[in-house]
Amino acid sequence: MSDDSGLWLLLLGPAGATGLYWGLYRYYRNTDKSHAFERETVVDAKPVTGSDQKIGQITGTRETEIDGNNVQSYRKRVKRLESDTG
Amino acid sequence: MSNSTRSSPPPLPPYTGPGSPQDVPPLPGSSPLDPATLPEPIRDELLAPDPVAIDTSSDELKDGLNRCPKCGASDIRHKPGSDLLICLYCRNEWHGARVEEEFGLGIGLDELSGTVIASGARDIAADAASLMTFKCTGCGAEVTVNTDNAMTARCHWCRHVFGVNEQVDNGAVPDAVLPFHIRKDDAVARIRQFVDKRRFFALKAFKEQFTPENVVGVYLPYMIVDGKASADIAGKGEIQTRRYTKGSGDDKKTYYDADVYRVERHVDFTVDDLPLESSTERGNLDTRVNTNNIINTILPFDTKNAVKWNASYLSGFSSEKRNTDVQHLIPRMEDQLLSIARAQVEDSVERYGRGVRWEQERLDVHGTRWVSMYLPVWLYSYHQPGSNGGMLHYIAVNGRTGETMGSVPVQQWKLLLTAITVGTFLEGIALWIVGTSS
Predict the structure, then answer these.
(1) In B175-317, beta strands by DSSP E
(2) Nearest Cβ partner of B358 from A40, A63, A78?
(3) What is the distance in angstroms between the Cα of A68 and the nearest Cα belonging to chain B?
(4) For testing the chain B interface, which of A35, A40, A59, A67 should be mutated: the one with the most B CBs within 10 Å?
(5) Can you tell me the distance from the alpha carbon of B67 to that of B57, in angstroms, rounded to the nearest whole number?
(6) In B, which residues are within 8 Å of A54 by CB distance?
(7) pLDDT, tens digit (0-9, with 9 covering 90-100), for B12-69
(8) Contact between A28 and B410 using a beta-carbon 8 Å cutoff
């Protein structure tokens, strides 16, 4: 939230301190690292098929992206449907 | 205590029917029924081969001795920096057979069906022991190998070198091994370089005790999985149709209109050599309690170059034993296959500029092939004391590619002090700006 007095600038100190702490901590401990098997495994995929069906419209939203956008969160599991072959 | 006045109970009637303790169990692998007398469908099922589809065992090495094909000596070592074995007696060098060609592991991914398990990836027998004893054919002495951490031992009398080569059911002997390529000196240099970049905020005790020369070469157990699968993913995507602002000055706000779509995607794919940790401890990647993610990060390995199991490659190195079976690893494999599928369909939803929210996913695994493999890792470890047993930090170097990753313990007070100092400085600037602009 911004206002005319620029008071939001006062967040600079705490935000900078927290950001620096986490940045350095991760650089030392590397807790966020793991094997990127999605990119580094040899995958041979057939062309992707599918369907796209318009189901509605949104007007006047202030959100810049869809709620719960997980297109790049490959490892975030969503509802798993039972498979045919198990 | 016997009581002579008490009459003895009447004898039990003899029971000799099926299932009675008097029955002698059939020999392993044999059937109490003669299949020839059974109907054809049942006979076919009984006589069908075992589910182990790829036999990777080496009959010639079963006595524990790996002999030089030229002179017959048993003192065989891995030649550092190569995939060669070398006879320390006559200096003869030879190359182990690559499993990729030997067992056709690189082909037929598209025809995979069911769960194909190589013989070294079979289930671990519950009563399997860690200690294996060999009777030395040279002098008759007994040589014991503890398969928890070693795969070779030398006869203390006649210096024959014994290796655990038989695929006993304790999970210690995999189908293949990928020999070390990165030498110890190289690994030490890489670890030193890694830590040198992270010295300022490192724990004081860690810096004082840092001796990368103590790095240990360890063969860690992995399951290498080939798979054929299909995935279906469904969700909602949004495409922006209009962007406009309302209000003026500081009240100006941006609004968006968008079309909403139901998005469904299907992808058929095969994966080649997906590595999964087959040790429970290494497979636990919870970064709150351990730093095993460090070892996971140095994956992948060039598993195509793995050679047929031969304990001589492990001479002088430590090893860790597999303790999980294929069925325990299937959920993790399916999870990774789903993640791969999600990555594969990403390009097909590029038109949804406002993103896609996947809501449902389905995976059909058509076939998998499991091979147990030892992969080479240089490990430097440091135990940081603390509550709940402290934390074991690793710096790991991939024994083939040299990829290095590590966890360096942090001197918390120093890091906090620096963060607060920088924060205070920034706050001072902010206050000055606010003060001068008002």
Answers:
(1) 176-177, 216-246, 253-277, 307-308
(2) A78
(3) 6
(4) A35
(5) 16
(6) 259-262
(7) 555 555 555 555 545 545 555 677 777 787 777 666 655 556 777 777 677 777 888 8
(8) yes
Q: Which of residues 350-379 of B touch A (CB under 8 A)?
A: 352, 354-366
What whole-number distance in Å separates Cα of residue B379 and Cα of residue B407?
12
- The beta-strand segments (E) located in B11-130 are 52-54, 76-78, 84-87, 93-95, 114-118
Q: Is B38 helix (H, G, I), strand (E, B) or coil?
A: coil
B333-347 tens-digit pLDDT: 999 999 999 999 999
CB atoms A80 and B363 under 8 Å: yes
Element (H, E) at B391: strand B391-398
Residues from chain B that touch A5, judged by Cβ atoms under 8 A, are 434, 438
Q: In three state form, how does the secondary structure of A7-36 look?
A: HHHHHHHHHHHHHHHHHHHHHHHCCCCCCC
Residue A9 to residue A15: CA distance in whole angstroms: 10
- Banded pLDDT at B153 (limits 50, 70, 90): confident
Helix (H, G, I), strand (E, B) or coil at B407: coil
Bridge partners for B276 per DSSP:
B223
Res. B375 pLDDT band, cuts 50 70 90: very high
Q: Flag whether residue B347 sits within 8 Å of chain A, measured between CB atoms.
A: yes
Give the residue with greater pLDDT, B92 vs B14.
B92
A9 or A29, greater pLDDT: A29
Element (H, E) at A38: helix A37-40
User: Which two tokens mark B103?
Assistant: 């067992």
Residue with the bigger pLDDT between B149 and B197: it is B197
For testing contact with chain A, the best of B115, B239, B271 (most A CBs within 10 A): B271
Selected residue of B100, B248, B261 to mutate for chain A interface (largest A Cβ count, 10 A): B261
Handedness of CA B83, B88, B93, B95 (dihedral sign): negative
A 42-71: CB under 8 A from B:
42-46, 48-71
The alpha carbons of chain A give a radius of gyration, in whole angstroms, of 21
Is residue B149 within 8 Å of B276, Cβ to Cβ? no
Q: Convert B342-376 into a string of H (helix), E (strand) and C (coil).
A: HHHHHHHHCCCCCCEEEEEEEEEEEEEEEEEEEEE
pLDDT in tens, B234-253: 999 999 999 999 888 778 89
Asked if A18 lies within 8 A of B293 by C-beta distance, the reply is no
| Residue A73 distance to chain B (closest CA, Å) | 8
- Model-level pTM? 0.83
Residue of A nearest to B351 (CA): A52
Residue B384 pLDDT greater than 80, yes or no: yes
- What pLDDT is attached to residue B44? 74
